[in-house]
Amino acid sequence: MSKLTHLDDQGAARMVDVGDKSVTQREAIAEGRILMDRKTLDMILDGEHPKGDVLAVARVAGIMAAKKTHDLIPLCHALNLSSVKLAFTPQQEPSSVHIEARCRLSGQTGVEMEALTAVSVAALTLYDMCKAVDKGMEITGLRLLEKKGGRSGHWQAG
């Protein structure tokens, strides 16, 4: 088991010093899902939601959140992301929207937290925009799917 790096020698929380790390291409992919009533999904897909294109708003919210992860998660580095992409895949069974975020940069630290934050905020935005018609929605399955680059190399979920 590796030593947690956000603790100093005295056990206090600290921001990791990445100054000596090599600049490499880094990428992370995360996923999550928001379960909803069938009528809510149909309303989104048919473009009949009273608030308009909720998937477009959720996409922008996810991108903005990835760019501001350092403001949301303590001890995260402020990163100059080169790319943030979100994909929304509606699914009939179970009635849901699958969300996938892909974040990239050339830098000294990874982008896992940015990808996870993008998915989280996109799902929360969908919840917020649809809660008037479906308060029982459930956000689930948030996880890292893959990361590339850096000292630890390539990792993929099993």
From TrEMBL:
Its EC number is 4.6.1.17. Pathway: Cofactor biosynthesis; molybdopterin biosynthesis. It comes from the Bacteria. The active site is at 128. Substrate binds at residues 75-77, 113-114. It catalyses: (8S)-3',8-cyclo-7,8-dihydroguanosine 5'-triphosphate = cyclic pyranopterin phosphate + diphosphate. GO terms for molecular function: cyclic pyranopterin monophosphate synthase activity. Pfam families: MoaC (PF01967). Keywords: Lyase, Molybdenum cofactor biosynthesis. GO terms for biological process: Mo-molybdopterin cofactor biosynthetic process. Belongs to the MoaC family. PANTHER family: MOLYBDOPTERIN COFACTOR SYNTHESIS PROTEIN A (PTHR22960). Catalyzes the conversion of (8S)-3',8-cyclo-7,8-dihydroguanosine 5'-triphosphate to cyclic pyranopterin monophosphate (cPMP). Homohexamer; trimer of dimers. This is Cyclic pyranopterin monophosphate synthase. The lineage of its organism: Bacteria, Pseudomonadati, Pseudomonadota, Gammaproteobacteria, Pseudomonadales.
